[in-house]
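Per reviewer request, we include the raw input and output of the structure prediction for the construct analysed in the revised manuscript.
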Amino acid sequence: MDFIFGTLPVTPSQFAVVCTGVVVAYVIFGIAGFGTALVAGPVLANFIPVASVVPLLALLDFFAAVANVSRDARSADVGELRRLVPVMALGSLVGAALLLLGRPQLMLLALGIFAVAYALYSLSGIKPASRLSQRAAMPFGFVGGIFSAMFGSGGFIYAIYLSGRIEAKERIRVTQSTLIGLSTLTRAVLFLLAGVYAQTSILWLAVLLFPAMLVGTAVGRRITLRLSREQFIKVVALAVLCSGAFLIYRYAAG
């Protein structure tokens, strides 16, 4: 164990803090299917280089999504996946291209404002006159793909669409997890090709945090099973609100 910690960018006491943050982050992921960057990102950024945070969370998010989907794969809405995945992939390519050209902070601010506005609307109790149209999959999937590639923060875009289309909370959660799994797999492959995972410290840290991720995801799933759909939607809206506020903070902090 001393040898392993000797290869990590954190001390054992710092690892305990990181591990706690990861458990809390994946409780949120187990409930809403997104949001790990909201909790784990800031905690990790205090102890490891910021450039290593997104690759590390990409690995953990992928395996968390696999754990979620493997238990309840039949609950995923295949029709919605067929509509979202192609435009999500296209959006990811556009986001990657924009990322190479520079991080447009105004887009980060716009996304944060949109997220906060939607969350406040959802929490207000005002019910929409009708469900979202199938055609809404194109803008939501495309924009979600862009911001997933650029900032690793597009999950709540898919959640907004899915909660406006699907009634059963379990179908929302599993479909959301499937989308996040596909999105993070794409990012992980890109990081692998770029040589990011050649840094053994990232891989060792991911391995050591794997049990914390599993515990958090399992606890979140158990909580979800006890929630009504209305309670579930409120939890998702709160996660979206916090995500939007965090993006606005990132913009303000430069």
